[in-house]
Design goal:
The complex is a heterodimer of chains A (342) and B (228). With 342 residues, chain A is α+β, with helices and mostly antiparallel strands. Chain A has 2 domains: 213 residues, Rossmann fold (3-Layer(aba) Sandwich); 119 residues, OB fold (Dihydrolipoamide Acetyltransferase, E2P) (Beta Barrel). Chain A is built from 9 helices and 21 strands. In chain A, the strands form 5 sheets. Chain A has a 6-stranded mixed sheet with strand order 6-7-8-3-9-10, with helices on both faces. In chain A, strands 16-20-17-18-19 form a 5-stranded antiparallel sheet. Chain B has one domain: Orthogonal Bundle (MetI-like fold).
Chain lengths: 342, 228
């Protein structure tokens, strides 16, 4: 069995005594594509920085290919590369920016000239037009592409992309996605991607991990319902939606600001009003989008209920049987005791 | 107005005619300012990097002290260096009083806080994203230090220009430590003081314009480097 790329155990990270990450166990296979999704501030970037060995955990261990690793250790220095959410170029030409990592690895100009040009073409930029441009002569999307080229030219074993397409024009975003996938396919690069584009992530990733409050909450796209919650009776809480419907959940005296998750496996959907069980709650919404998840042979549904979006995965066959389509009225039911508080 | 026009022509005449006394002062000025700048940059840039990049005990207090020392009065530095270099002073045995080297020591003390403070400020202003970039591309701590200095080169260049401007135009240290000795330690600023005392205002302003030309040439050279 191949040694996993990463094995994390007991990872905790604190900033000024505030816990920002708490990952009990996490294993990422070598050559896999893993996506991390979650709201802003949920700890994705913190985790990615630790996976990239840019930052160290306050507690716990990270094994890279079975070896304990930390920032600057030889086991990872030339093997793992991070593309931050807002990449920063050096105050040099595009060529020099891309060649920087190669120079650190001891390549001379005759060796890296072709590599740099190839990397530029990989991200869809013409070497003739871009090599000599200075860092301030690039658009936002071009900065992202040059920064990605500076990583791709190193052919890293692990490429970590933190929201690679955020704030980037459509053409650049597509090019970034294609280039990253090429690295995975052609070189067997392990890809770790954080983002909000869950449709794309579900389409390309072997695993999509959802995070909330610094913790991993599941490997499927869970529906996070943020507070405030109103107490209806002992152990019963409600959240009023825009259209007057209410989400009812059961719990043990949570803080009203807590986030609740109704695990997908407990949610049933139907195109017709279902027969409601005594402990179940019924909500009515509109199906707003459908997307295919080829890896899981499933369809991802987005149902909007009074301003709250529910995302559900159903088998492809079931979607065909029910003949569902966007714009359709959809009913969802869930046991009110199925909630998990965060 | 005529007075200033006369001074302008006089300054060109001084430069073009190769007036030996003027050129002696120019060379003395360039020599001491070069010595002092080399010393202050060699000591000041690493100290500025440490102050800007690292966190340590009393950092804030040291930073405040360095910032305050940027406003050091030149006569105070002159007096301090004089007391160190005088025959009765701790460094009197080296015979540096009334020498260009003595003036350079004083000017280096004057420039050092400027170089340290402005280097620290430019290193502090560097985004943490740059550090992440260096690590992501495989740099080790030594390479990060050198690359960070290279990335702040324009700001450090500005720090040099500031410090050079202060050194070039100071008069307190040159006159107290150098003694304004003709053909020896007379710099342009001390020559201006002398000419003004003699009532030779046109000559004084002309020398001032010469100083301005030198400062302009230095700044132009640094700006040229910046464009590269």
């Amino acid at each position: 069995m191949q040694t996993p790329a990463y094995q994390l155990s007991g990872i905790k990270k604190y900033y000024n005594r505030r816990q920002v990450a708490d990952i009990q166990e996490l294993t990422l296979s070598a050559g896999s594509i893993t996506g991390f999704v979650g709201p802003n501030g949920c700890g994705k970037s913190t985790l990615l920085n630790m996976l990239a060995f840019v930052d160290s955990p306050s507690e716990g261990t990270i094994l890279y290919k079975g070896q304990k690793a930390h920032p600057f250790s030889e086991a990872v220095r030339f093997r793992v590369s991070l593309l931050p959410q807002e990449p920063c170029l050096l105050k040099r030409s595009v060529f020099e920016n891309i060649a920087y990592g190669l120079k650190l690895r001891g390549f001379n100009k005759s060796q890296y000239l072709k590599k740099v040009n190839d990397a530029l073409m990989l991200v869809g930029l013409s070497p003739d037009n871009f090599s000599n441009r200075l860092w301030y002569q690039l658009s936002g999307g071009e900065v992202h592409r040059v920064a990605l080229a500076a990583r791709l030219v190193l052919k890293p074993e692990v490429l970590i992309l933190d929201e690679p397409t955020a704030g980037v024009d459509v053409v650049s975003a597509q090019q970034i996605m294609d280039s990253a996938l090429m690295a995975s396919k052609e070189w067997g690069t392990t890809l770790v991607i954080a983002g909000h584009d869950w449709k794309w992530l579900h389409e390309i990733c072997d695993n999509v991990i959802q995070m909330l409050n610094g913790k991993i909450i599941g490997k499927s796209l869970e529906n996070i319902l943020y507070g405030p919650w109103n107490q209806v009776s002992t152990g019963l809480y409600e959240k009023i939606l825009n259209d007057g419907q209410r989400i009812l959940v059961q719990g043990d005296s949570p803080l009203t600001s807590f986030a609740a998750i109704i695990p997908q496996r407990f949610i049933n959907i139907s195109a017709n009003p279902p027969v409601q069980k005594p402990d179940e709650h019924l909500l009515k919404g509109v199906l707003v989008s459908l997307s295919l998840e080829p890896a899981a042979n499933a369809v991802m549904l987005s149902v909007r209920i009074g301003g709250q979006k529910f995302t559900l995965q159903i088998p492809l066959e079931k979607a065909k049987e029910n003949n569902i389509f966007p714009g359709q009225i959809i009913y969802i039911t869930y046991p009110i005791s199925s909630v998990v508080w965060y | 107005m005529n007075f200033l026009i006369d001074a302008l022509f006089q300054s060109f005449r001084l430069l073009i005619s190769g007036n030996q006394e003027t050129y002696s002062a120019i060379f003395a000025t360039l020599k001491v300012s070069t010595y002092s700048m080399v010393v202050s940059l060699i000591i000041g840039i690493p100290l500025g990097f440490i102050l800007g990049h690292h966190d340590f005990l009393l950092k804030k207090q040291i930073r405040t002290l360095v910032d305050t020392l940027m406003s050091l009065p030149t006569v105070l530095v002159g007096l301090l260096v004089y007391s160190l270099l005088t025959h009765r002073g701790p460094l009197g045995q080296y015979g540096l009083l009334f020498s260009l080297e003595g003036i350079a020591i004083g000017q280096a003390i004057l420039a050092l806080p400027i170089v340290i403070a402005l280097t620290a400020a430019s290193v502090e202003s560097i985004d943490d994203k740059l550090r992440v970039t260096f690590i992501s591309l495989g740099a080790n701590p030594r390479q990060i230090l050198l690359s960070t200095l290279w990335e702040t080169r324009y700001s450090i260049l500005s720090a040099c220009m500031n410090a050079y401007g202060r050194v070039l135009t100071e008069v307190g240290i040159s006159i107290i430590v150098g003694g304004n000795i003709k053909w020896h330690t007379r710099t342009i600023t001390t020559a201006i003081t002398l000419e003004t005392n003699k009532g030779e205002f046109v000559m004084g302003v002309a020398l001032g314009l010469v100083l301005l030309v030198i400062a302009g040439l230095v700044n132009y050279s640094l700006s040229f480097l910046r464009k590269r």
